[in-house]
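Protein: Transcriptional regulator with PAS, ATPase and Fis domain
Species: Aminicella lysinilytica
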Amino acid sequence: MVSSSQIEFIMNNMNLGLVYVDKSRRIQMCNQIAKEITGIVVDAHNNHGSGKIEDGDIVVIADNKLGDDDGELSLDELKSLNINDKQIKDDDMLLAIGVYNNEKIQSQYKYIREHQLRVPVSISSNYFGFNISASIDTANKVTEITVNGQPNRIEYYSSVGNTVVIDGKTGSIKFVQARGYSVRHEAVGDLLRGHGFIAKDVERKDIDVTGKMFLELFDKSKLSDELFGALDGRETIINNSIYEINKRPFVCTIVPWREEGADDGVFLIIQEAENLEKLMIARNEIIEQMEDGQLRESQKELGFPEDAFKSFVGRSPQANEVKYLAYKASQNKFNVIITGESGTGKSQLAKEIHDYGTPGTPFIEVNCNAIAPSLFESELFGYVGGAFTGAKNEGKTGFFEAANGGTLFLDEIGDIPLEIQVKLLHVLQDKIIYRVGSSKPIRINVRIIAATNQNLELMVANGTFRQDLYYRINVFPIDIPPLGERKSDLYLLINHILKRVCNEYGMEMKQFSGDALNKMLSYNWPGNVRELENTIERAITLCESNIVYSEHLRIGTAGTANTLKEMLAEDEKRIIDTSMMKHNSNKQAVMEELDISRTVLYEKLKKYGIK
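Structure follows.
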């Protein structure tokens, strides 16, 4: 068993804030880092005594978002510094130097609207003999106030109201803003309304919080609710989530502690979030390097080049098999059939097979379910002038001619009418086409890549797809598994799509928070890669900052089951849905494959809304 003294030693010798809360919601241990980063104690790099702002004191402000985490600072409080500009609004960036409660002395200030600048904004002055400067660097999220060469620098995550007060009588530094100011009611708005401030000195560093109620030192918030939920057994481990502690964001982990012979409790691990974006970027870069290394090794083992099929992202055994088959297909001109659910990336893979094997030659994509049955022949083979009513006088080149010397990609080939299938078969056999209205043969050299999400074998059995055509196109089959069956590829896919979309839309590169990643990684993605792409595009469009949180993600309930019953129901629905698709909604075939009765099948179809 680990003793309390051992735990306390570990807590005080780690680089993270650590708090232990017992069953009665009292703090039993709290290391120094936790006290400092939450503002329970103050880093005494700038010592000063307790007091309050008095008439004649010089107040310097660097506020990146007026009214937010600055004690609700507004024009009413700024009037005490002789700032009466009614153009200053909430959310403005404000730099100001002024004398408290002296209408005769002019203040100096600068305000910027809507945070659009990505370059540092500053103000400087020799103000009554004091060399004063204040700056806000929104790119690096830093505010700094310097008085006679002595800086007070505060990094921020969302907003901050950095403040320094100079004693109007002695000229000494009277107050320096420090993190945790909100819980001490030392925000600049509070100070300008007459609230006092505590002393900041070395003697205050060892405040004992043992035995204090958690809510005496931490605001009631989502963090306290979930921590108490863990104490009561309603919550399990919560990893790397963002919480506000005393008006500031932190990355926290909540770990329930169960030990025989001791009261149950919870460890709260706290990490500052001001540099969260940098941490996420570093984390992503490290994971990507590891993934890339594993990808190169797996490609070497399978025997295809590192640069092959990079756009088909993944390193799972399933993804590697697809890429290996695609590489082999690119090295010859056999006809290829690509199968897989909707949204798995069949069109993209077809294009990559073509580009890698025969770059610079035509690639013509035909969506077979978008062509009216009466137009199939003229679209595929073209026509001569006057061939039918409405035909162009000059005629029209068909898809086969356009693809001559290259690849014709027939997407959703199962939707081609039977009467066209026979003509397509002859073209594949003879390499000759005839335009509609012409008896002149045109020799072609076209490689066919077909794709479908239907079960062509079943369609052959049902007489809706020609068997001889099926054998002709099924020379080299490649099946793309659904994304739910290769979830180890999700992390790579998410980052690949994120980078591509940000580049396409000319956006600054964004990162996903830990909870957003967890939400995506735990989802089954029934819509496959297409659903993932749409979800990411929507999220980064909604997100105004560089961090995409779970709240920006609009993900369905499928794949998010928590209980065993929910997970079993989800798997049952997926199995039946897959079987229905495989057998083209032939219920008798589904019953035989799954060995269930007609009554059971119809009950399940109704329960899950499967048609």
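Remarks: Residues 58-200 form one domain.
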